[in-house]
Amino acid sequence: MAGLLLAAAGLGLAGLDPAGALLLGAALAAGASRGGAVLFAGVSVLGCVVLGTVLPLVLGVRADELDVLSLLPDGPLAAAVEVVLAVVLAVWAVLRLRDRRPRPGKPRRTRPGTAALLGASTAWALAAVLDPTFLAVVVLAARADAWPGVVAAHLLWSVVAQLPLVVLLVAVLRGAHEPVVRWLERAWARARPAVRHLVTAALLLVAVLLLADAGAYLLTGEFLVG
């Protein structure tokens, strides 16, 4: 078990992500309560543990035998899906470019309720399936002989990978989070214009790549990727 836990900790460091802390910081800045912060962080961290533990059982296969790529569409259907996604992303990017309305310095914020925090944290936990380090832990933990080792590996990965979120939660419980939230607000205010442009550019780039991949299939019968 020691080797599994060491690997889980290393993968957690490789997948270290501050996004959860940023989401919680935004919720706190909007007026989320201490209980709401505990709910968000708890579901985010423990949700990854539950997901990693039960995912192989739900799929009915061992995690180390799962071929994720086999679940994806292929052939003409995959090309059609790529074209649809490309059009959606391109339209979204164009709408973002046309939306040049001035942003107020301090927009009115609505205090997030329990349902909103629960939904956001659940979605954040489910997004772990897009993290290669999480999938690696799922595969490694599936080889463990005992369930305690499986749960411990996923818990360790989740805590390490979301360490900024855990640290912010500790600050909230100690009543020392306000300076952190104010810093996050200032940092986001400075970075927001650049982030907006980067997101728009990324949407256009992905749309072009999807169209190129689908076009390659229509012309040659083979995808550029895969």
UniProtKB/TrEMBL annotation:
UniProt keyword annotations, A-Z: Membrane, Transmembrane, Transmembrane helix
Q: Where are the transmembrane segments?
A: 6-30, 37-57, 77-95, 116-142, 154-173, 194-219
What domain of life? Bacteria
What is this protein identified as?
Answer: Sap-like sulfolipid-1-addressing protein
The species is Pseudokineococcus lusitanus
Lineage, uppermost ranks: Bacteria, Bacillati, Actinomycetota, Actinomycetes, Kineosporiales
